[in-house]
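Collaborator request, handled under Task 6.
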Amino acid sequence: MKNLEIIFEDDYYVVVNKQAGMLTIPDRYNDAIPSVLGELRKKYNPIFTVHRIDKYTSGVLCFAKTEAAHKHLNTQFEKHTLQKTYQVLVLGETEAEGKIDLNIVEDRLEAGRMDVHHKHGKASLTNFKTIKNFGHDYSWVEVYPQTGRTHQIRVHFLAIGHPLLIDEMYGSPEPFLLSTVKKKYKLSKNEEAEKPLMARLTLHSSKLEFNHVVDEKPITVEAPLPKDFAAVIKQLEKNY
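Structure tokens returned to the collaborator:
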């Protein structure tokens, strides 16, 4: 399992720091495409999917090794007694902290896309705290989703006017370049074109907190910011 970084494991759980660009579960039409579950199945039998994160989201992803652990984690998800934490880079200047309480529904016009609705859909709640504003242009935010709807963070932040810095479906697909924030940026002699600092969804699953199936002991697993995410923050801090 060369493509997987395991950050926590015992007899009941295995937690992976997922790379951006890798599927959580096998593609329904082509199981040859690499996925975290597919790789884990090569070593563990049985192995159970507990939750998912988007293909281009990086970070903490938990799987259960036993039926009891799987059921116990599912119960915690259903009762909202565990805590997921994400790091996100968005456009604009966010408030110091806030709560987004907007129902989420499937978009009627575009398959696979979600939208918010004030009356219909599933109740969805996202809490957040701003880590740092970079002028009025960008914000680095820590997010605590209280429900687990499809694309919840992406849809909620778009709804309050702060789409993710890079998001092909709900915002701009354009990669983040150093020249965007560094006024006197120049290509080096060996470069034909500028390489982006980050070219995927600006969303990272940074922490998962849950109770163990055996003794209810609290478990906290964290995944550090990946290099591309950290590189963008470094340059924003330098240039703002």
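The cover message to the collaborator said: "Residues 89 and 140 are 5 Å apart (CA to CA). Helices lie at 36-40, 67-79, 152-159, 227-239. Please let us know whether this matches your experimental observations."
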